[in-house]
Design goal:
The protein has 261 residues and is of the alpha/beta class. The chain has a single domain, classed as NAD(P)-binding Rossmann-like Domain (Rossmann fold). The protein has ten helices and seven strands. Strand 4, helix 5 and strand 5 form a beta-alpha-beta unit. The protein starts with a helix and ends in a 6-residue tail after the last strand.
Length: 261
């Protein structure tokens, strides 16, 4: 795969052979597309997820043919900092390094703010905002010591626009944009880039579980009148972690079919 088809006259993307990537929630949906893309280009991919993701990662590996041996599963709840630390330690112990971190894991617990419980608010913030903070904190000393790192945080169009019934999710995804910019500033001199990708409504299991009326509304609000595909998000992530993208940091790439400009 090269960048020409997606990013105009950009140079060919370089091989990721020898690189080690952590992808949280990397077993399916957008995370699965990212894991497939990185493994296809030669990276060792450590999928970090909760217990049910072990079987999903096995299914992902089964679909990868030649690159299946590059994908490994590490169980951790990203809402728990000690578990994040342990996962990073285990990846480094097994593979010697961490070059890339993609913070993709996320959950939804949708209600209007009047009906949303405090526990629902906290659960979404814990996974979708504290989780990326915990994972970045767990890898940064290692990356700084090696003077190299690529971090991509998966935000959402609703972090820009808000969304009815998603105050917790929108707040977390908006907060992630500010977190991205701040960590980018703090690590720019250390050879680390930190960027965000903000997808629109994408054809994942999470979105497909929405009522059809809600999906139709999302499509009608999207000028291209369709849902995005996980691979379309994966290609942008792949571009941002490439060696040739080292002058891009603190940026947010909107991949939403024109829903937010």
């Amino acid at each position: 795969m090269d960048a020409t088809s997606t990013f105009g006259h950009s140079a060919t993307l370089r091989s990721l052979a020898g690189r080690v990537a952590i992808v949280t929630g990397g077993s399916r949906g957008i995370g699965g597309a990212i894991s497939r893309s990185l493994a296809a280009d030669g990276a060792i991919v450590a999928v970090v997820g909760v217990a049910p993701d072990r079987e999903r990662t096995a299914e992902l590996r089964a679909s990868l043919n030649g690159s299946a041996k590059l994908v490994h599963f590490y169980e951790a709840d990203v809402a728990d900092y000690p578990q994040c630390e342990a996962a990073v330690r285990n990846v480094i112990a097994d593979h010697g390094r961490v070059d890339i971190l993609v913070n993709n894991a996320g959950i939804t617990k949708d209600h209007t703010i009047r009906k949303m419980t405090v526990d629902e608010w906290k659960a979404v913030l814990d996974v979708n905002l504290s989780g990326p903070f915990f994972m970045m904190k767990a890898v940064l000393e290692h990356m700084i010591e090696r003077k190299y790192g690529r971090i991509v945080n998966i935000s959402s169009v609703v972090g820009h626009t808000g969304n009815f019934g998603q105050s917790n999710y929108a707040a977390a995804k908006a907060g992630l944009l500010g977190l991205t910019k701040t960590v980018a500033l703090e690590t720019a001199r250390a050879g680390i880039t930190v960027n965000a990708v903000a997808p629109g409504f994408t054809a994942t299991e999470m979105v497909k579980l929405m009522p059809q009326a809600a999906i139709d509304i999302a499509k009608s609000r999207t000028p291209q009148d369709r849902l995005g595909e996980p691979d379309e998000i994966g290609r942008v992530v792949r571009f941002l972690i490439d060696e040739g993208s080292s002058f891009i940091t603190g940026a947010t790439y909107d991949v939403n079919g024109g829903m937010f400009m």
